[in-house]
Protein 1
Amino acid sequence: MKAGWRPLLILAHLIIAAAGFYILSELIGIGIVCPGAILVFMIALLMEVTRRFFRDRGETFRWLASLVVLSVCTIAWVVWAFQATRPTTLFREYAADPIPLSVRIIDAKYQGGADDALYLHFSIGATDFPFLLKKRSYVELHGDKANPVQALGGASAPRWWSPDRLTEPSAYQFRTDHEIVEIWTNADRNEVYFVVWHL
């Protein structure tokens, strides 16, 4: 392999990896990207194994093979992360599984980083609403704790997050040392704001 090609192939590796990280951070959230440091190490190790496996081939071929490995791993990672944060996937994992037939997800947002949280806004049939309360041991909130202003989430919440617009709202909460889950619904039990805050 000519010496002039090696810097270009290394640069190509870095560009593809950077593109994958950018897509994840923009579309999915930095919370999915941070644990990827371990995956990056594994990909680098796999690339080196690939180069050693083809040690009898030319240097150019080995670099191209490692580039293909990096490309495939990056694409697979992006596809997996995107699938893992689809609204229906998030609903099944955090709200209810299976999803009641009456549910229509209006908005969904997974937010990573320091304020790691999941926000869902959906409509649901009143007869299906009790199904949501079966996943966890929710406690109904009363008094000031049932004021939807308490659930606005500050600047970190998405723009559409507005449980304060519900008519005669009711609130339910499940709390552990690691997360707080709240359900806010209207008087007819057919509109829901659902949030999970990871502590």
Protein 2
Amino acid sequence: MTRPALPTVAVALFWALSLTAGALVPGYTVAQDYVSSLAGRGSSVAVLGIAAIAVLGLAHLATAWVCRGGLAVPLALAGLAGLTIAAFRVGCPLDAAGCSFTPGNRIGDAQSAVHGYAVAAYEAALVVAMLLVAVSRRAADKMFALVSLVAAPVSVVLLLSTGGEANGLWQRAWLVVNTAWLIALAWRTVSVASNCR
């Protein structure tokens, strides 16, 4: 298996696990519910949810390994934040469906707070990585530098759009942008024969 294939397979596994887990929970909708609630304390599919989020963190660590340059640092930090998100799970005592939105289906404790801070840390690290690519590759790989420059603010806007109507769709759009950029980075790094700087 080539090095860029590792993050690609990990991202595909994340999507497969999260979509499968969501389909197994009565009342759970991708339009409204968080991916994190699938791994929540009280979720009937917590094992699948935890695995999905953990493998997404591993995808970022695998991309850091592909890059092996200065850009590997924020990618590795994003990966570690992802693993923290998987480990510090939100409390969903009434199962994953409606967690955070149904009265009584969210426990606001320290573990949930760490989870939220880890999401913020993940986003900050990934946006830094995107902006580093935009600057460092502006001469050698202009197209991907431009894609990265656009992806960074789009990622932030999509994340900030969660927490209301169509929350699940906003979050999944955010995850699509982030995971697509991650896979593209891994393959572009190999195709332009450059380390991530």
